[in-house]
TrEMBL record:
Protein name as annotated: S-methyl-5'-thioadenosine phosphorylase
Function: Catalyzes the reversible phosphorylation of S-methyl-5'-thioadenosine (MTA) to adenine and 5-methylthioribose-1-phosphate. Involved in the breakdown of MTA, a major by-product of polyamine biosynthesis. Responsible for the first step in the methionine salvage pathway after MTA has been generated from S-adenosylmethionine. Has broad substrate specificity with 6-aminopurine nucleosides as preferred substrates.
Gene3D superfamilies the UniProt entry points to: Nucleoside phosphorylase domain (3.40.50.1580)
Binding site for phosphate: S17, R58, H59, T183
Domain of life assignment: Bacteria
Domain Nucleoside phosphorylase: 10-241
Source organism phylogeny: Bacteria, Bacillati, Actinomycetota, Actinomycetes, Mycobacteriales
Catalyzed reactions per annotation: S-methyl-5'-thioadenosine + phosphate = 5-(methylsulfanyl)-alpha-D-ribose 1-phosphate + adenine
Family: Belongs to the PNP/MTAP phosphorylase family. MTAP subfamily.
Subunit structure: Homohexamer. Dimer of a homotrimer.
Length: 265
């Protein structure tokens, strides 16, 4: 086990424990400490489709972190410490539209933040304001739109860990939002502040409470649906990694001409 940042990677995947099988037996494990504490778990480095990839289990190895307690700042900072420039973020989502049933993969292009109390910036001083009109890297999104994945959608991120009430779900749907999730913010904005290209890959696990007329969303059903679709999802992520561009991305380099109050890793 390595205790420093000597390992390097160009692409990261933040996702569930099922993604460990991405890597061969010679994968390297990195333990890091950041100014914001330790990330959710040690980071695994390996080769995927000829690319050097870092994998970070978002919720920890044993799913010990709830969405509202995740060390988001440490997670993203640690990835940049390893040289990562692009991040794919597979996640489970509820659908707010009946046509996107369980098993649908959506590559959102917009985000709505309905969280509260989460540390969501590295810049608590210095008057730094990052561009966020389009929260996801357009170039990386193109790499993620594979096979039958839906191109575009609005993902509303709620605080959790509870699921939405029917009234909340119906309200979200009336706004024209298509997906609901608990982890997409502040992950995306922290990536932007670190000038990392970031794209979510959203797997629909359920119809949200206001869409479905049954008993509503249950965690056990969400986990089961995610595991049911883990192999097709991994295949899609592999293809996205293979198609991901190399080199600099001017779209996500948002600090040009700005004197930052902290030094980025």
């Amino acid at each position: 086990m390595n205790n420093d940042a000597t390992g390097r990677a160009e692409i990261a995947v933040i996702g569930g424990s099922g993604f460990y099988s991405f890597f061969a037996d010679d994968a390297e494990e990195i333990v890091l400490e950041t100014p914001y504490g330790a990330p959710s778990a040690p980071i695994t480095l390996g080769e995927v489709e000829g690319r050097r990839v870092a994998f970070l289990p978002r919720h920890g190895r044993q799913h010990e972190y709830s969405p509202h307690t995740l060390p988001y700042r440490a997670n993203m900072w640690a990835l940049r410490m390893l040289g990562v420039g692009r991040v794919f973020a597979p996640c489970a989502v509820g659908s707010l539209v009946p046509e996107y049933g369980p098993g649908t993969v959506v590559i959102p292009d917009q985000l709505v933040d309905r969280t509260s109390g989460r540390a969501q910036t590295y810049f608590d001083q210095g008057g730094v304001h990052v561009e966020f009109a389009d929260p996801y890297c357009p170039t990386l999104r193109k790499s993620a739109v594979q096979d039958t994945a839906v191109d575009g959608g609005v993902m509303v991120v709620v605080e959790g860990p509870r699921f939405s009430t029917r009234a909340e779900s119906q309200w979200f749907a009336r706004q024209g939002w298509t997906l609901v999730n608990m982890t997409g913010h502040p992950e995306a904005v922290l990536a932007r502040e670190l000038e990392l290209c970031y794209a979510p890959i959203a797997l629909v696990t359920d119809l949200d409470a206001g869409i479905e007329s049954g008993q509503g969303v249950k965690a056990v059903d969400v986990f089961a649906e995610f595991q049911k679709n883990i192999e097709p999802l991994k295949a899609l992520v592999r293809a996205a990694i293979s198609d991901a561009p190399t080199g600099d991305c001017p779209t996500c380099r948002v600090h040009a001409g700005i004197d930052l109050p902290i030094e980025l890793p």
